[in-house]
Protein 1
Amino acid sequence: MITQSLTVSAAVAIAERRSGRVDAGVRAGRARTLMLRNALALRTNNALSFLTGFVEPVIFLLAFGYGVGALVGTITYGGMTLPYAVYVAPALLAVSAMNGAIFDSTFNVFFKMHYLRIYQAITSTSLGPLDVALGEIGWAMLRGAMYAAGFLTVVTLLGLTTSWWALALVPAAMLIAFAFASVGMAVTSYMSTFHQLNWMQFVLLPLFMFSGTFFPITAYPEWLQVVVAATPLWQAIALTRGLFLGVLEPALLIPVAYFAVMAAIGLIVTTRRLDRLFLR
């Protein structure tokens, strides 16, 4: 009886706090609860899958930065002549942030949504769909930050960092991960089978190969350069490469604005979809 009374009192207190807010119908302000749940799950059975997101860019750096780099030598970027490994490293960090966010917001979210039915249980409490969206996307953002910090440590130990501005790669990776996770979760909310998730590879693989990760897009025809420059991964690489090299130009604000808009759109679509799916 006492436990029931305390539960009711807590629910009443939450309802009173959110009653005056514009977003009262979709958010209780407790997204951190879902992030805590993901952190606890990581400690039990998801640690290995989490570790692969850090190991993958390191393997690519060693294979391409040093293996292919031994054949390429140096590369010209922004008027600077760089060792190939220095050119590739910040791009791989951006790719790592993207892949980690997409993995979390597609495969993991789909499994929780359709098999574990976690979100149905969560939205039957005081938490709303915006809490779910912010919790999952916020976790992807933290994952991107941890990947960036670990990868930056390896790159520094290899002697590839050229500027103290490389430390800004951690918040940059968080922004990139947040934006990709927002869109990834929005797309996942429209999927009904696991097979549909394989479509993501048709998008991610071309982005990885042709967005300036391994060579400048100036190798393309001008019309194709315009198309590639509009893709999110190219914007992410432009941001991380500029910060890594300490090339601070007003143009770096363009990818920041790009990802802010991308995150906002994804978050709005995700919230509306979850509201329609679970609260109707």
Protein 2
Amino acid sequence: MDGKQVSRIERGILTLLGIAKGDDEAKLAKLIAKICELRIFEDDQGKMNLAIKDIGGAHLIVSQFTLLGDCSAGRRPSFTNAEAPERARDLYEKALVLSAGHGIPTSGGVFQADMKVSLVNDGPVTFVLEL
């Protein structure tokens, strides 16, 4: 951000977190637990069988309201399903705390900042989780 690195992880999970209207702490806690326990890393036999904690990985969570963009009508996305920034910020910050509470080194971006996010995807392995 502004030419400075804010966060960085090595091996682990990058979560792009979109917070929709109506999302709450209970739903967020369930989602973060799912991410932290998801067995998506390869074991010695090459099978997806290990969770982030099993590999000593880290978790980077970046707020990404554009995931809520509705492109079904017209040529410009509508973000009416995205949560208001004040409420979304609270839930985003709670996500960081919840992830760290699972014993996983967790870092984040800067809420509502214009950031350049880089990813080296190992696999590639990408999942969309909705609860």
Protein 3
Amino acid sequence: MKILLTGATGYIGKRLLQNLSESDHEIYCVVRDRNRLKLDSKYAFPEKIQLIEADMMVDDLENILPLDVDIVYYLVHSMSASSTDFADMETTMANQFVKYLNCTTAKQCIYLSGIVNDDNLSKHLQSRFKTEQILSSSKVPLTTLRAAIVIGSGSASFEIIRDLVEKLPIMIAPKWINTKCQPIAIRDVISYLLSTAGDPRFYDKSFDIGGPEILTYKEMMMAYAKHRGLKRWIISVPIFSPKLSSYWLYFVTSTSYKLASSLVSSMKNDVVCKNKEILDLLPHPQIDYMKALELANSMIINNFVVSSWKDAFSSGLINYNYYKRKVRVPKYGCFVDKKTKDFPLENITMVRDKIWSIGGVNGWYSSSFLWSMRGLLDKTFGGVGLRRGRRDIHDLTEGDAIDFWRVLVADKEENRLLLLAEMKLPGEAWLEFKILQDEEKATLVQKAVFRPKGLLGRLYWYAVYPFHYLIFPKIVTNLTQQTKAKT
């Protein structure tokens, strides 16, 4: 079959692509920038995957995407966009996509949505339901799979539960922790997405998908604590407003405020399966919640997190169009702090590997306390802080998040890593590492570049510049040493 996959760089899309690549299908992946998806060894038959760049918001899709397709997956969401914009964005994208579907030979469109059985839906769930209605208006039969929260390494819901339980022995929590939910393991989600494809029994139908248990959010957190052997106490209070709840999640967990706000607004709704027809059509042993936790933590421990919600541009502050344009550090109107360090040619691979491992649990090779304080300051002023960490402790791809930076360029052939700051700043900041070499030696060039915005930006640069002397010389020194120095 010929399969078109949208949202291929998203949390679900990356995992589905990995499974699809093991089949004999021809796969077309719709991406906003092809550099964000490496077709490497984790895909069984990468030669059968074709990347197509398209913007679902503005592009004339029927003139860009292939029309001769059999199955189409619609996995595009905008939950992390602002609360006032995401519904309009999702409506626009769905309408654009319907125009495309009506020009194709597709036999089925599969959409992953949220459970919408409550009468008073949140804006997020209302938007998902409206998208479903729009997609169903096309000539292509629609299959909608409605899921509650997804439990898997890198999923936003799992990461929030993990953050809360790991960090807080005692929680004074909002009343939504008593809301009922039917969590589902990521492996079961992928199984349903694959099994319903091309099966006429699922055409023009919607199905609720969930795990075997109905739990409150409190029960899910306590189960995680039990899984980790932690003693935790959770006290529910009725005084937390949605805004206060959003701030609570934002400061304690690695989530962005936009995503926290969207999640909190949805947590007032019970998300429990009512339509269980899919269990009769596709009977299989469901993964229970404790097993899902075990599998997720196993992937994290073994450093095999295939995808993460943090990889989405909306988990930070920059727009993806900015990413596509700014692959070179600007030269004019900028302050530059440049450091260099020579090292033996035979150590190039070692130095590059250390650069590619920077941030997250590996740290920044210098003044860990100062980096932590900068992350806390950023979080206080509404930034992303340091809690996002990394998707993988060694691997980097363009678009990955590293703490409060975003990877713009990760080119091992050029030995160049370029990061753009997503912290709150009165201007724009870049951090670049590049290895140069001649016949006698190699040189690590590290550049911190800041383009100020107005007088405040210039004052900021002069205020933080003294700290550069404590941080940046140590980074180039420690990166080029044979062993990682402890500072």
Protein 4
Amino acid sequence: MSPLKKEKLNKIRKELDKLDNSLIRIIKKRTDLVKKVLALKERKNQIVDQKRINLILSNIKKKSLKNNIDPKITNKIWKNMIYAYIDFERRNFSKKK
């Protein structure tokens, strides 16, 4: 790789690092909201709402297409995030009281 390309690569990676830091703050906010949702659930079987999951994934696909983002990427990201939070809720359900 030429020195110029390497310099450009390093600049882009620094931008990605800044973006990752922003994503961490957003994930923290989302986690706080999920904790509030969990506090309202009375039974463990209320954790998974398949209709809501389907709606979220459908909306993400529409928004991805509208913004010229490969919907396969966003679908994988959101599915992983949804199931990570489902796991979080299951692990924290019994601890909530």
